[in-house]
TrEMBL record:
InterPro entries: Ig-like_POM152, Ig-like_POM152_1st, Ig-like_POM152_9th, Ig_POM152, Pom152, TMD_POM152. This is Nucleoporin. Residues 246-280 are annotated as: Disordered. Residues 257-268 have a biased composition (Acidic residues). Transmembrane segments: none annotated. It comes from Tetrapyrgos nigripes. Residues 1102-1173 form the Nucleoporin POM152 ninth Ig-like domain.
């Protein structure tokens, strides 16, 4: 074979493709065409899936895809695409295969297996129509072709809208007409009897022509309410008046530039602008208080609108609050510490319990408070709340609101802080929820004094001497006077002050030639400045009292000022010649000076005939020595001329003088003294002073010591001193020893063993002798030395001390052995303590001496303000459990109203903080919260939490009052052992529901007992068994209701009522009406969806032919009405041969395809239950009957929910009639029928008109009709019976 012959292609494959390759290459042609085929098959698969779930026409789909697939195969052969180009025989085979496939999938080809007891229609495309049953037929050629004709041969297409079945009645549900009272949940109150309120009523799809409402008086229901009718015209008049008032209140056009819509208060605008298109508002005008309920509203179609059953409005008088009395201006001025607390009485009017908001402004610092639970006493502990309820015997809940009442409530206020105090009532709220801002709106007619009280609290004035005290007296020179300054501190509003000063002259003292007498004067200050008092006589000046314009004051230490007259200085001078063993070397002078140091002594020296010289010496003490040893020899004259002290200057001295012709030695000094400063010794009680002396020279020594007192001096000699350091005892001068004071001890001279006595003047010793002991006492009059402070707060106890600072104080608390001490630095110091009790001063000492405690001021009592407490009211029913200290309340049901009364002690208003806990599943407790509530009354109510079942614990954790507010003492809760603990068991309300909502099926006269082991009809209970359940069984055919009461011992019960049998067919509604358990609690709200279940009761399987005739036409469809619940099993005989047919829905249609006698022998339903024998059936052919709905017209009727429409069926033929009608969805598209919702059969009608009433939405039409002899349609096996319940 040559290469050329081998490469030659067959002629069949040599043809080129229809589309040349220069336009589209062959691979692309294959890809595009195969993709087109895949796309077609995908769309076919989608149509097949849609046909399974919708009511589309399967034969139409079959014809469409037959055409598409044939065109696809033919076009493929014409394109001649390489590798896809097949022979004509293959193309024909392809067409045959796709036709068979499309016919099987979409129902165009049906296979009759023939000869079997049951006809089987095999189709991959499941028809959405009812399947017809066929009697066996002869194998005619036309019938065989019809099986494969795809619906084109044999069975004609469906004929609709013919002369036998005409008319449609469509029912469309109009929107629901509703009326709701007070839709925005507003609260209303009447400011006065002349005012009125407008209560809105929200309407939906309603034009009212009349309205009725009832008004019940406030308080417990007593009698029938008053009913008021309002016509539609009156409603329009009220609405027009309201709109006119709104128009007047709106800003004018010229004010629109300044108008801001956000300035409007919420709800102040016309609310109708916010309504939906179907909504409108009307208002009820009300002039008196009461509980308003909307009873009835008729719309323009004379149909009652649906009224919200829970809508009611409580109209009460507006709450008010004011102070009982305004008080005068003088009463508004108070003194700090004058009185502990002040009570202001408030008159509060409104529906209890009320709450009041008030504010306290102290020195421009504002604090706001809220007091809740203001109500009167209620015998028996009955609570009045906003939603108090009374439950009638029929379970109807009536709500009532207490009537308005007036209460007088005290407000305790402290006035312990100086400054401005303003107490103002701000807002009052009643139990209904009305809140009135005081001094605004409704209360603006009240005087400001009725809602605001102002006080000016003045601080107490204080006075004392400045720069003068018993330890530091004032003095004056002879011929002058002393100015005593009294320091005064007072509130400017309390000025001027009246200060009472007492003068007591010193004993035995005279001022010049006058005898001094005591006196008492009252001096007035100018404003709050210091006061000056002139003292021109010696004595004691004391402040004995002070009083301001409004308040008494306190006298502080120093309250007394001694005044002394300073005498002129004098001196005692003793001249001595300085003679040493060798002779005179000069002179020495010993001076004893009297006056006030420092002293300056002036003397003159005259030598021979030379000019005299003036010299001076300054002495800081009362005694002074000096020597003058001239350097030159000669005759000297020494003369003293003047003396000065601190107060007087150059007082003339009369001599003395000494003459001397001026032609080492023993020494001594005090131990511890220095050359520049004298040694100071303080003595309190000793009569002798021990002084150590260091001696130098040759002993033994003789020592002369001079004791210089205020007005005298004495020289004491000590002889035969052997040691170089000797302690000598110097007696205290008698005057100083008696009255106290200062004196000096100076070394005068020393003599050694050779007899050379040498005068010396080393620094001496200044001795301060105190004979007036320091004192200490608590300040305050007898019976007023006490203070009350907060618990464990530091208390400052005022002291009055005399002596020199610092003071050391020893004290103790009476009853305790421990002694405490304190160091004080001010005569008006305070003693700080932190415990309550009586404090006693034991000892006192100042910087020098121990003192004594004044017997009349040695104690001071400190009391604590008791902390507020709470205890359970004795009227509250509770059992005390000693094991844990709790009060156990009687158990209650879930959701019940409950409270306990608490008796409070302390200073109202109170704040109560408590814990709420509940038992958990782990054996412990879970904290639910820590709420806080307020009360201004000593008895308050603690609301109990009964929202959820379980063991609930209430523990009062902390209580606050005016003295111990929670904000400042939140870290000091009540000790756990002292807390009030309350327990209560909250029972779960019983409930019941069906486990599922599956329908139950029973036969007529069956006992209501379980038929199987499924969970259908099982009731699940919650609560404590045993349960008592109330069931109602309502038959919708006879509208008869039976009630059953069953006791159930377990939480799950399947309905088992052997005493009840079903005596009527149709649907029965089983409803759980109520349930009770062992707790005795009313049941919880039952869910309507889970408390009902349906039972379908069927007659004992029955079959009724539509066409009751003995002779009938061949080809007619014999239809039977099947009574019962599908599926049915029908047994019949044809010409003596028995058959059975499974029927899924009614009516059952049997197409007669051969002559003979047809006898229905038996029928069963519900999985072959309720089987019954069927009597002989005969058929006679007569004129086909017809039926009309609404007399053959297409009627559209709009109804409201709850209404019914009458559907009239008209029949033509020979009664009795049996017809089948169906209800479909309203069609949203023209000429497209809606989904079938329900199919019903009405048998044995002996009139030519038949009416039914329905409240369901849909289109009603007749699908089949039979009279006494015939039925229609006769020959439509595919469309004869529609699927029911669709």
């Amino acid at each position: 074979m040559s290469a050329k012959s081998a490469g030659k292609k067959p002629e069949a494959n040599a043809s080129s493709p229809l589309i040349r390759e220069e336009y589209l290459d062959v691979p692309s042609q294959r890809l595009y065409y195969i993709s087109l085929g895949v796309l077609c098959q995908a769309v076919k698969l989608f149509d097949f899936a849609r046909s399974l779930v919708s009511s589309s026409d399967d034969l139409y789909l079959c014809r469409k895809w037959l055409l598409v697939d044939v065109i696809y195969c033919v076009l493929l052969s014409l394109l001649r695409i390489p590798r896809l180009n097949y022979s004509k025989a293959v193309v024909a085979l392809q067409i045959i295969c796709v036709c068979i496939f499309d016919g099987l999938v979409f129902g165009g080809i049906k296979v009759n297996l023939g000869g079997s007891s049951v006809d089987s229609i095999v189709s991959l495309g499941k028809s959405r129509h009812s399947e017809l049953a066929y009697t066996p037929e002869s194998s005619a050629f036309q019938d065989l072709v019809a099986r494969f004709s795809f619906g084109l041969v044999g069975i004609p297409a469906e004929i609709s809208n013919d002369a036998h079945l005409r008319g449609q009645y469509s029912i469309r549900m109009s929107p629901i007409s509703t009326a709701q009272l007070n839709p925005y949940r507003e609260t209303f109150c009447l400011p006065s009897s002349e005012d009125a309120v407008l209560i809105p009523v929200l309407l939906n799809n309603t034009t009212p022509i009349s309205l009725r409402y009832s008004i019940s008086p406030l308080g417990r229901p007593s009698g029938e309410p008053t009913y008021v009718d309002i016509s539609g015209k009156e409603l329009k008049a009220i609405e027009q008046a309201r709109l006119d008032a709104l128009q007047v209140s709106r800003p004018s056009a010229k004010d629109m530039d300044d108008y801001d819509e956000y300035d409007d208060e919420p709800g102040s605008d016309d609310s109708s602008s916010q309504l939906q298109s179907t909504q409108s508002l009307v208002h009820i005008r009300l002039h008196k208080p009461g509980v308003i309920r909307l009873e009835r509203l008729m719309d323009s179609s004379n149909v009652e609108a649906r009224i919200n059953p829970l809508g009611e409005v409580t109209v009460v008088p507006c709450p008010r609050a004011r102070f009982s009395s305004a008080g005068s201006d003088d009463d508004n001025i108070r003194c700090a510490g004058q009185e502990s607390d002040l009570q202001l009485m408030m008159d509060i009017t409104g529906v209890p319990p009320l709450s009041l908001g008030w504010s306290k402004t102290v020195n421009s610092r504002k604090e706001t408070y809220l007091v809740e639970g203001i109500e009167g006493g209620h015998p028996g502990g009955e609570s009045i709340t906003r939603d108090s309820q009374v439950v009638s015997n029929h379970g109807i809940v009536h709500r009532w609101t207490a009537a308005s009442d007036q209460f007088s409530v005290p407000l305790t206020i402290p006035l312990d802080t100086p400054g401005s105090h303003v107490y103002e009532l701000e807002v009052v709220r009643d139990a209904v929820g009305n809140a009135v801002v005081i001094n605004s709106g409704l209360n603006d007619t009240l005087p400001s004094g009725d809602t605001k009280r102002s006080f000016q609290v003045l601080r107490r004035s204080t006075v004392h001497f400045k720069s003068c005290s018993p330890e530091k007296p004032a003095s004056y020179r002879i011929g002058s006077e002393a100015s005593l300054t009294i320091s005064a501190v007072a509130d400017p509003s309390d000025a001027p002050l009246d200060i009472t000063v007492k003068y007591q002259p010193s004993e035995g003292v005279e001022s010049g030639s006058k005898r001094l007498h005591p006196w008492t004067k009252t001096l007035k200050t100018q404003s709050s400045k210091d006061l000056s008092v002139s003292a021109n006589a010696p004595g004691q000046y004391s402040i004995i009292g002070v009083k301001g314009k409004w308040c008494p004051g306190d006298v502080l230490a120093p309250e007394s000022c001694p005044v002394v007259e300073k005498p002129k200085p004098t001196t005692e001078i003793e001249w001595k010649k300085i003679h040493e063993c060798s002779g005179d070397t000069g002179v020495s002078a010993s001076l004893v000076m009297h006056g006030t140091p420092p002293f300056t002594v002036f003397y003159r020296i005259q030598k021979d005939s030379d000019p005299s010289k003036e010299k001076s010496k300054i002495f800081q003490s009362f005694r002074g020595d000096f020597t003058d040893q001239p350097e030159d020899s000669g005759h000297y004259t020494f003369t003293f001329t003047h003396i000065s002290d601190a107060h007087y200057s150059k007082v003339e001295l009369d001599g003395p003088s000494i003459d001397q012709v001026v032609h080492p030695q023993a020494s001594a000094e005090f131990v511890g003294s220095s050359k520049a400063k004298k040694k100071v010794v303080n003595v309190c009680e000793s009569d002798n002073i021990d002084a150590a002396v260091d001696l130098r020279g040759s002993g033994p020594w003789n020592l002369d010591v001079q004791v210089v007192g205020p007005k005298s001096s004495e020289i004491i000699s000590f002889t035969g001193i052997e040691s170089s350091r000797k302690t000598i005892q110097v007696p205290v001068p008698a005057k100083v020893n008696q009255d106290g004071g200062s004196f000096e001890i100076d070394l005068v001279s020393v003599e050694d063993k050779y007899g050379c006595k040498r005068p010396i003047s080393p620094p001496g010793i200044t001795v301060n002798v105190r004979r007036s002991k320091p004192t200490a006492k608590f300040y305050g009059a007898e019976g007023k030395r006490n203070v009350t402070v907060l618990d464990h707060e530091r208390a400052n106890l005022p002291l009055r001390l005399t002596g020199e600072q610092p003071w050391r104080l020893k004290y103790r608390r009476v009853g305790e052995p421990r002694i405490s001490s304190a160091t004080l630095k001010s005569p008006n110091d305070v003693l700080s303590v932190t415990d309550s009790g009586i404090y006693e001063i034991l000892e006192v000492s100042d910087a020098q001496c121990p003192g004594y405690v004044a017997a009349d001021g040695s104690t001071y009592q400190v009391d604590f303000i008791p902390r507020p407490t709470a205890r359970l009211s004795s009227q509250t029913q509770a059992t005390f459990e000693p094991s844990n200290g709790s009060y156990i309340l009687p158990p209650v049901c879930e959701g019940s109203d409950g409270h306990v009364d608490l008796d409070l002690t302390g200073r109202p208003p109170f704040q109560i903080k408590y814990n709420i806990a509940r038992n958990n599943n782990n054996g412990g407790t879970t904290l639910l919260g820590q709420p806080t509530f307020n009360s201004i009354q000593p008895r308050t109510r603690l609301q109990l939490d009964t929202k959820q079942p379980g063991r609930v614990y209430y523990e009062v954790k902390q209580i606050g009052d005016t003295a111990y507010p929670l904000a400042k003492h939140e870290n000091t809760p009540i000790p756990r052992a002292n807390r009030l603990l309350i327990e209560q068991q909250v029972f779960l309300r019983p409930s019941a529901k069906f486990r599922n909502r599956n329908r139950l099926s029973y036969c007529l006269y069956d006992w209501f007992t379980p038929l199987d082991t499924s969970s259908d009809g099982t009731i699940v209970f919650e609560g404590s068994p045993p349960f008592i359940v109330h069931l109602s069984i309502k038959s919708w055919v006879g509208n008869h209701v039976d009630s059953k009461i069953v006791e159930v011992m377990d939480h799950v019960w399947k309905i088992d009522l052997p005493s009840y049998d079903f005596r009527s067919i149709g649907r029965h509604l089983i409803t759980i009406e109520s349930v009770e358990d062992s707790s005795g609690c009313a049941h919880a709200v039952l869910d309507p969806a889970d408390s009902k279940i349906w039972v379908e009761v069927s007659e004992t399987a029955a079959i009724v032919p539509f066409d009751r005739r003995e002779d009938y036409c061949v080809g007619d469809i014999v239809q039977f009405q099947l009574e019962g619940t599908p599926p049915w099993t029908v047994g019949y005989r044809i010409n003596g041969k028995s058959y059975t047919q499974e029927v899924q829905k009614s009516p059952f249609s049997l197409l007669q395809q051969q002559p003979g006698e047809v006898v229905i022998t038996s029928i069963a339903h519900q999985q072959k239950m309720c089987k019954a024998s069927v009597p002989d059936l005969h058929f006679t052919v007569h004129q086909l009957p017809s039926a009309q709905v609404a007399h053959g017209k297409n009627v559209l009727h709009d109804i409201h929910e709850g209404d019914q429409a009458e559907i009239v069926f008209s029949f033509t033929g020979e009664p009795p009639f049996t017809f089948t009608y169906q209800r479909t969805e309203l069609s949203t598209q023209k000429n497209v029928p809606g989904k079938v919702l329900d199919t019903q059969i009405s048998p044995r009608i002996y009139t030519n008109e038949y009416s039914i009433f329905s409240a369901l939405e849909g289109t009603w039409s007749v699908t089949a009709i039979s009279d006494r002899y015939c039925r229609y349609p006769p020959n439509q096996p595919e469309r004869a019976v529609e699927k029911q319940g669709r």
